[in-house]
Amino acid sequence: MKLGMSPGxxxxxxxxxxxxxxxxxxxxKKLGAILMALNVLPSDLASAAxxxxxxxxxxxxxxxxxxxxxxxxxxHSAAREGKKVILVPFNFPPELIHAFDKAVPxxxxxLTTMGVAILKGQGERYWDIAMGLGLPDHLCSANxxxxxxxxxxxxxxxxxxxxxAPGGCDVNSKIHEFASHYLDIPQFFLQKPPDDSxxxxxxxxxxxxxxxxxxxxxxxxxLTEDKLRGVIEKANRCTELxxxxxxxxxAAPNPVPNIFxxxxxxTRFSMWGREEGVxxxxxxxxxxxxxxxxxxxxxxxxxxxxxxxxxxxYYDFMxxxxxxxxQGYSHLGDGLxxxxxxxxxxxxxxxxxxxxxxSAWNMPMTRQVGGESMSRSWTEDVVxxxxxxxxxxxxxxxxxxxxxxxxxISILRKELMNQLGLPLLILxxxxxxxxxxxxSVIQQEIDEFIKNVVARKTTKKRxxxxxxxxxxxxx
Amino acid sequence: xxxxxxxxxxxxxDHVKKWKDDGGRVIGYVCVATxxxxxxxxxxxxxxxxxxxxSNTEIADAHMSRFNCNFCxxxxxxxxxxxxxxxxGMIETNGCDHLRGMVENWNYVKKFDFLHYIKxxxxxxxxxxxxxxxxxxxxxxxxxKHFNLAITDEEIWSxxxxxxxxxxxxxxxxxxxxxxxxxxTGAEVLSxxxxxxxxxxxxxxxxxxxxxxxxxxxxxxxYKARLLLGGSATDEVDFVEEIEGIGGLVVTDALCYGSRAxxxxxxxxxxxxxxxxxxxxxxxxxxCPRMFNDFPSRRDFLFSAIERAKVEGVVLxxxxxxDVHGVDNVLLRIALENKGIPVLQLEKEYGAAxxxxxxxxxxxxxxxxISDSR
Amino acid sequence: xxxxxxxxxxxxxxxxxxxxxKIIGAKTISVLxxxxxxxxxxxxxxxSKQEIKWEDIKCAVSTGYGREKIQQEGLTRENISExxxxxxxxYTINPNxxxxxxxxxxxxxxxxxxxxxxxxxxxxxDKCAAGTGHFLEVMSKTLGVSLDELGxxxxxxxxxxEMSNRCTIYVETEVIHFLQQGxxxxxxxxxxxxxxxxxxxxxxxxxxxxxEIMMTGGVAKNVAVKSEIEKTLKVKMVKSKIDPQIxxxxxxxxxxxxxxxxx
Lengths: 475, 374, 263
Prior knowledge:
- The structure holds 3 protein chains of 3 kinds.
- By secondary structure, chain A is α/β, with parallel strands linked by helices.
- Helix content of chain A is about 55%, strand content about 5%.
- Chain B is α/β, with parallel strands linked by helices.
- Chain B is about 50% helix and about 10% strand.
- Chain B contains 16 helices and 8 strands.
- A 4-stranded parallel sheet of chain B has the order 2-1-3-4, with helices on both faces.
- Chain C has 2 domains: about 1-95 and about 240-265, ATPase, nucleotide binding domain (Nucleotidyltransferase, domain 5, 2-Layer Sandwich); about 100-240, Nucleotidyltransferase, domain 5, CATH 3.30.420.
- Chain C contains 9 helices and 9 strands.
- The longest helix of chain C is centred in the last third of the chain and has 21 residues, at about 185-205.
- Chains A and B meet through helix 9, helix 10 and helix 18 of A and helix 6, helix 7 and helix 15 of B.
């Protein structure tokens, strides 16, 4: 018996984004503002729209939305155009697939995040499909929501799946493996040796080259130097712009709207290496530059500068990103922004493939918890960003299914205190499912943490009153 | 058998104590992807880390989290409590994310005198095999360097042959438990396996011979159904006893504290390089859901065990938060049910006595279902 | 010949006596601290009410919590899981039943039986309060209404509230929040029942429920939860001809009869 199946997550997103795609940018900006003012949007969509199209982020938000529309609609049209759709996880560099004429990438976690943010009912019905198959509830909603929609067999199915989480994340690897077997979809791998000795990195290049050969055979197209160069050059441009935003983050008050943290990795995981990706970064840089010049900041005062050391929360964009700004809490980026891109040498095919391997090696999660020592790699990155961006505190999302980070968060907390004297807030919830921990509780915890811990840390040190000496002390 | 049961009730059993008293050194390891032949060839004793159903994880919880597998937390607790102070070193493998976290926290709080990490690939293919083979050579070199000794290929081959003999004896025990009139209960076999990974190899061969002889005419009767137990790492003998206490005799298993640890033989006898031989077997026949492109092998392993042991029902467990087994069990369940084999998929809390009631209700209903359908 | 079934739940204990498959009498009491005492109390009271002697009971079966101990004490000959008992009980009442949704005070089960009434598959939730009677109990207290009122009152609602949370603790906070905002109790009650039904359906999905479906257990008496489940499954559930709360004990009595017949 089918239990009231709704159309799949991807299909519903295509439907919405087709509309977005057709609306001219200026109209989209105004329309968003009008719809928000009229309070006619359903609450989940209103939260996403409110955050994406808020005055401080609107310019870049519209470009970001258009970029995603292009990305999603392209994947939807792929089959008609004789192209293969390759489902990748977020820690795989999509620019490799963009370099093929006959293939397009789709990223599980980006689809989930968009679905959760803007669709009525968010992602829960798709999560329930996965649970209905008997899959355990300690899986990660980031990918299980999108894959749950696929598993219901009423949503689009990719032509192949690339699994690049082996070595970095068991749960991500397992759900993609499950989907591959359950739906009989071919799977390709890019595994990360947790090996910082240099051997691991060499081996990774071997794996990358093997993967490229396998993809060439599957897609029926040889990767050409020109095409790859075209994509990598744009990726290099994105890299430059990434570091521009990085530099803007150093200013106080932070001129970079909180939600740009999401835009940055949303772009990295979807259209990095494409013109649309470049435009999104350019729009963000433009906004940040203007805001820096104006010393614009949403709240009266910047009270706390927060680095999120892993993911954020995505089921209520306004409830997190905008709410934080309204309180004066800057979101300096999260763990998913820590991909430290590098300019790739485009002189030869070899140098570009090596550069791609290096990019993949440094993708978020792979780089940190795919390291030989999860705690060491993760701590190094978090300490680096906290120091560089003058953070006052670090926040750990506490996404329940993130076993690797949960297993070593105690070490990170200790090291942050030892090395930088920074406090760490540990939340608990599901970053993509609001029913686990409501946003009000997340807000409350952040508020109390900043007011009671972070604020105290930054006030003047209390002087101990000198004790009056008594007779017995002198004896 | 009584002696075996007695010795597996504690972590540091009498054989380990004697080994240490005689000046021997012990190296802990966490996962079956560790070729213990190399440790034995070095004259050291390999010891498979276990928690024996320990439920107190107070200190471990301050380091790992309640979202991490309780088996790993339990092992960590024992480590931090000093129960594993007899170890002279540890071999880490990236068996799963929880295990990685466990070893990292253990080493952070209580540094191991010797810690070596064998990075085991997650995929079975040519590229991975070459890498893993080199990893095994590095593993040997690390032991040589730290313990200031030399391990020759001949010594490794000698240990491989000894381990093959031990594997053969364990297979004999499995034949005896799987036959129409089983000679061992599942709880007894788990105890045997636990001891087999906690005593010097020289002691083990004799022990296994004696228990095989002791039980050769034994026949277990009065059970309701023949079960296969598969899934997450479990060394909880009392859990198996509870299942068997309500009539479900575990006639075979697909556990890593069980058949998955020793079933594959070092295959290529013509291979002159022991590392090539070990790498091939330990990687290609790992039979662990951490191998992400090898589901058909695990499924087929289960099918052949079911046929061999005339299994009537399969119980697949996963410890809460164990993603690798939790997901794999669903694929296995679907494959088995498609062949008309009844499956009970259980999520359990490792080491929680309070959880036993819940488990028993489900197993009882499953046994009722199997007997109903006869 | 009389046969008896005893079912010890988390909040109530039931006993049923049957003769030739027909229910002669049934009794429900609140549980005592020890399951054996609960079993003795409930069966004594029932037998006394029906004026039947213990010696007249040919065979008795226990189910539910402490069923093994009750058997070990010699009160019953056999103990059978509540899963099988609910399955057999529902099937005996209506042989078209293929799915039984049993929601008790502390747990919820979905049971599938085949065309011969044999247990085919099942799934249980006995860890999380959401989707069990306990959830409704907590919410009805928070709303200040009795458990019996929760179902009927919510049927008058035209605009049930949507609960944003799943965990009982957070839903309780939400209910308080709605009350403070002046939302009508009828609409909140409807939202509670809907949330309850969602959890039950999510559990049911795991075994792919098939028609005909029957609800058993105490929560089957909540008309609103039943109606919400029917809406989501798009199927009308078969009503139990007996008190759904005694289904487990009835099934146990049927097993007792079967045991004797098998001798």
